[in-house]
Amino acid sequence: MSAPANKNNRPVTSAEELSEWMAEGCKSSEEWRIGTEHEKFGFHLDNLKPIEYGGDSGVRAMLEGMRRFGWQPIMEGKNIIGLEGADSAADGSITLEPSGQFELSGGTLKTLHQSCDEVHTHLHQVRTVADELGVGFLGIGFTPKWKRAEMPVMPKERYKLLTSYMAKQGSLGLDIMYRTCTIQVNLDFSSEADMVKKFRVALALQPVATALFANSPFTEGKPNGFLSYRAHAWTDTDPDRTGMLPFVFEDGFGFERYVDYVLDVPMHTVYRDGRYIDATAGTFRDYLAHRLPGLEDRQPVLGDWVNHLATIFPEARLKRFLEMRGADGGPWERLCALPALWVGILYHQPSLDAAYDMVRDWTEEERDDLRTNVARQGLATPFRKGRVQDLARDMVALAREGLAARGNTDGTGADEQIFLKPLEDTLATGRTPAEELLDKFHNSWGGSVDPVFKENAY
Questions:
Q1: To which H or E segment does residue 352 belong?
Q2: Which helix (H) or strand (E) holds 336?
Q3: Are 226 and 217 in contact (CB under 8 A)?
Q4: Is-contact 22 298, C-beta < 8 A?
Q5: Per-residue pLDDT for the chain (458 aa), expressed as one digit of tens each?
Q6: Which residues of 360-394 are buried (b: 16+ CB within 10 A; e: fewer)?
Q7: Handedness of CA 151, 157, 161, 162 (dihedral sign)
Q8: In the chain, what is the straight-line distance between the N-terminal and C-terminal CA atoms, in Å?
Q9: Which of 325, 336, 405, 448 could staple 116 via S-S, CB 3.0–4.6 A?
Q10: Distinct helix (H) and strand (E) counts, the chain
């Protein structure tokens, strides 16, 4: 939700054009890249309250301070609302989620070593500026302490419109906007058939990744009964644009079928002349047919479609690449582990084929049950004759095989398998990050969540 409006003004007149545009995302395997994104909560070190936009130690001051590293400002009116590198493809951008969650949308890079170096550089820059301002940043999936009413609101016109809309779409939509953080990786495909196989594997296995990365067991200072409350919140957020997309597993699925789905999802906004226009009265199909109330005379452009695609929130999302969206925010080593997990599986044909064979006979009911149950039970979630921990073990093993086959090494000779270690440690104990936090809460932390602001800080 955080990216600035796309300004591609190429007119769009048919669904066929949209399908063709999405198919143009196909790339040869030599061109495949990795794009890592992660969000984090800012807080004041002296009182552990969330940082507001303005003031001497707020979000605006953070963004201004980051400019010393060569970042260029993204403005909305007089407000700085993000940063971008000189080369947006290689350098990525820094953007804001609705309550000021600081998000790195990384550049498109070739190896996991490059991606992890990017993460380390970014966190070093953030820490440098944050230390000067007396603020910190927390890696976790859901705010452990703050109430919804305490969350600041960023001065972005689009978020004002979305807040009104999301308040009506499930009971936890506003929590998703204002009180969650995630880790995400974006990956490529070579053809429509390759996209279909990868999309099915990504959707089916997303709950397993959710369990491995479960890291949001607290709400308003107390255990909330879940291991990933962020994942639970998505199950009660706008059913029009969330979920496991059962049609992806049907015969004949491809770009055209996905476009048909997105065309019928209610719109959020249209961006024109530097401002956002409320478009919630209809769908993109209505807009394309010039029957969207209040926008009948507007010609849809490709930028409108790109922005609309970004308002679809299934467990894995298709654009001109695939986005894996199932992981809670977490400590720095997990920012490298998430892309390692998916790159190892999706970018190595034997691992991808084996993963597809693993999930191909799962039913729609089983996939939906996994999505719902891992939020509370994590790796202990029952599945057929075993548990999700068994699926996770197989998943990580396939990723390891894929990363070994890629053969990308760093200056010490270590290959990309090193980034899987946090996940293998989790599998060895059978305890998710959330369960580790809960154990500390009930024992060494003495029933307080405050220590998490130190232990999970970047």
A1: helix 349-359
A2: helix 332-346
A3: yes
A4: no
A5: 444 467 799 999 999 999 999 999 999 999 999 999 999 999 999 999 999 999 999 999 999 999 999 999 999 999 999 999 988 777 899 999 999 999 999 999 999 999 999 999 999 999 999 999 999 999 999 999 999 999 999 999 999 999 999 998 899 999 999 999 999 999 999 999 999 999 999 999 999 999 999 999 999 999 999 999 999 999 999 999 999 999 999 999 999 999 999 999 999 999 988 889 999 999 999 999 999 999 999 999 999 999 999 999 999 999 999 999 999 999 999 999 999 999 999 999 999 999 999 999 999 999 999 999 999 999 999 999 999 999 999 999 999 999 999 999 999 999 999 999 999 999 999 999 999 999 999 999 999 999 999 999 99
A6: eebeeeebebbbbbbbbbbbbbebeeebbbebbbb
A7: negative
A8: 23
A9: 336
A10: 18, 17
- Angle (nearest 5°) at CA 183 between 77 and 364: 115
For 359, residues 6+ apart whose C-beta sits below 8 A from its C-beta are: 200, 201, 204, 205
DSSP state of 301: B
- Condensed to tens digits (0 to 9), the pLDDT of residues 118-170 reads 999 999 999 999 999 999 999 999 999 999 999 999 999 999 999 999 998 89
What are the structure tokens assigned to 399, written together? 């990723």
133: part of which helix (H) or strand (E)?
Answer: helix 112-133
**Pair of tokens at residue 327:** 């992981």
Which residue type sits at 309?
L
The owner of tokens 């990384």 is 106
- For 229-290, give the DSSP string: HHHHHHTTS-TTSEE--GGGGSTT-SHHHHHHHHHTSBP-EEEETTEEEE-TTSBHHHHHTT
What one-character-per-residue DSSP string does 151-202 give? ----S-HHHHHHHHHHTTSSTTHHHHHHHB-EEEEEE--SSHHHHHHHHHHH
Which residue type does 2 have? S
